[in-house]
């Protein structure tokens, strides 16, 4: 069966290797590696496949998956065979290709209060094959370490709470206003608690009690029913930790990791090849794909890290945690994405230059080519959503799907951004009556 045959039979799915998606630059083939981890040898194979069967470009997604772009209907069968032989193809079925998301340093982070990677694997094993689960449903498992996950947009969020000696797992359901914390359980009982919630949500859908595809859209009474099923202890909302770093050196005890960012998540086959080489020369031979849309190389020595950061900066990675581009998030945009209405990455680069004063204060800017907001499921201080006339809807402190306060041309946005230095300046500059 060709890729076009597959596409013709599927609507509203989450793309994978078995389920390619037709977009502006050809077919998009998404690889969902468990835990976001691939071996260096697999990375080399994927890079070669992207050259031979695609257009040589890849994306790292906001869930730590890897997309090969520009595949044609003619090259797809050979690509499918190659990735199948390497064990990089998702399981059959209509549900999520990958149920859980973890920090790229889960399992090796000395600040974690429990082993988030082990818990995620247990949830995948217990609930990964639940019938009737929507393809985009996913669970964030946050062990309380150096890279918090509260902004990834998960349906079910699990986070460490309590002190190290008595660490527990707090659970939250996605809600229209953010996360609604519903209770806590022990690390031992967390897989069963999460499975109860996941299974019940799927059962509600199978029985026709709801048509919601994400927990944030679930009716209030049904959300309360889910919360009551897991037999959780009362819990206070865990404190919000500072957002995860998007680039630079991360300390891991005696060793360090290099988090190499990519402008807007776009990666070339050559860059993936280079990362594989650095991991083999200086690290553990493993590449970890980060929800920050970058590549993490663990297990580096103090001697190796300097070489990696230097070489990475010279081949297009962002290795400086203070780079202003890290505060700007953008989707592939038009023409790469068929659903995009604007060239989001090109416009985002202009906005990044104009907003240098604002982003230096830690503010975030999200530029989305359409209201889906694929590149960033969370809130941003300023969200710009593309319109068919090339202008952008403006959302302050919200999501791409939120109602806009006004819409402006690229030139008007640039003019208003340039003098902005603080969030108060931002709110003043983008009031409906601003000139």
Automatic annotation (TrEMBL):
Domain of life of the native organism: Bacteria
SUPFAM superfamilies recorded: Nitrite and sulphite reductase 4Fe-4S domain-like, Nitrite/Sulfite reductase N-terminal domain-like
Keyword Acetylation among UniProt keywords: no
E.C. number: 1.14.13.83
Coiled coil: none
The keyword Iron is annotated on this UniProt entry: yes
PROSITE patterns (UniProt xref): NIR_SIR (PS00365)
One Pfam entry name: NIR_SIR_ferr
Keywords: 4Fe-4S, Heme, Iron, Iron-sulfur, Metal-binding, Oxidoreductase
GO molecular function: 4 iron, 4 sulfur cluster binding; heme binding; metal ion binding; precorrin-3B synthase activity
Nitrite/Sulfite reductase ferredoxin-like domain mapped to chain residues: 19-85, 260-313
Alphabetized InterPro entries for the sequence: Cbl_synth_CobG-like, NIR_SIR_4Fe-4S, NiRdtase/SiRdtase_haem-b_fer, Nit/Sulf_reduc_fer-like_dom_sf, NO2/SO3_Rdtase_4Fe4S_sf, NO2/SO3_Rdtase_FeS/sirohaem_BS
PANTHER family assigned to the protein according to its UniProt record, in alphabetical order: BLR3264 PROTEIN (PTHR32439:SF9), FERREDOXIN--NITRITE REDUCTASE, CHLOROPLASTIC (PTHR32439)
Protein's recorded name: Precorrin-3B synthase
Organism in which the protein naturally occurs: Microvirga aerilata
